[in-house]
Amino acid sequence: xxxxxxxxxxxxxxxxxxxxxxxxxxxxxxxxxxxxxxxxxxxxxxxxxxxxxxxxxxxxxxxxxxxxxxxxxxxxxxxxxxxxxxxxxxxxxxxxxxxxxxxxxxxxxxxxxxxxxxxxxxxxxxxxxxxxxxxxxxxxxxxxxxxxxxxxxxxxxxxxxxxxxxxxxxxxxxxxxxxxxxxxxxxxxxxxxxxxxxxxxxxxxxxxxxxxxxxxxxxxxxxxxxxxxxxxxxxxxxxxxxxxxxxxxxxxxxxxxxxxxxxxxxxxxxxxxxxxxxxxxxxxxxxxxxxxxxxxxxxxxxxxxxxxxxxxxxxxxxxxxxxxxx
Length: 326
What we know:
The protein is an alpha+beta fold and about 325 residues long. The chain has helices at about 5-10, 30-35, 85-95, 120-125, 130-135, 170-180, 190-200, 235-240, and strands spanning about 15, 20-25, 50-55, 65-70, 75-80, 100-105, 110-115, 140-145, 150-155, 165-170, 185, 250-255, 270, 275-285, 290-300, 310, 315-320. Helix content is about 20%, strand content about 30%.
């Protein structure tokens, strides 16, 4: 972790290329109505220049992937985990029958994250966009800076500080990053971004959640529309909401270790009264907490905040609600 980048993310502004994500492009006149029947968020509510955090589920309500839907007006971008991009594009394309829609990986655009209390001002200066327009962005709104070669800006709180993601052609990303640095933003390395992510309690697909995860288990209730019509997996989600009142078998929780201990080994089990209750999925040393913290998917019997559990290596840890609030 870089102390300078961590301080900038909390006190001014920091930026990074989001290379762990990739972009799929969806084209065709039926693309939004087709997506509406697949993903968990309300795509019909997205106008040109709008965006939505979402997920694609199996009929059993388990995650195929998380994604961000970004609508440009002429086509739709899907922000997905980079290791899955080609596979997801092929799977989605096989679900197109009579609809006017096509899905393919798009290697042209990339996404750059800008984080910190000064992120809006630095981004406005770097893009030449009026500051009030940037500040007015909500959690799910986007701003089109260039309609002909779309540069979309989406509010992003995934690192626990005010932030934005800019989606733009790769050949323009270098210029944006140079302008951000010139405007006073600090480059944010991957290790520091990981510390911020874990402190914020933001799950990462393929790390803290997998294809066995139901979104509610990972705290992703905000990606599940409560008002739209049918989507794949909706029956299970509604059953959890209405019949089980949100009760699930396990939940992603935080763990706080005693002072002066290194981060625990990821993958080791978490135990309560001699019973395995889950495993650690992410772990870092948190400067704000002054100790090591971790994320763990825990059985509901061990998921009550304040519960003292024991790691596989014998280390005691306290269960915390997410985000940590450090």
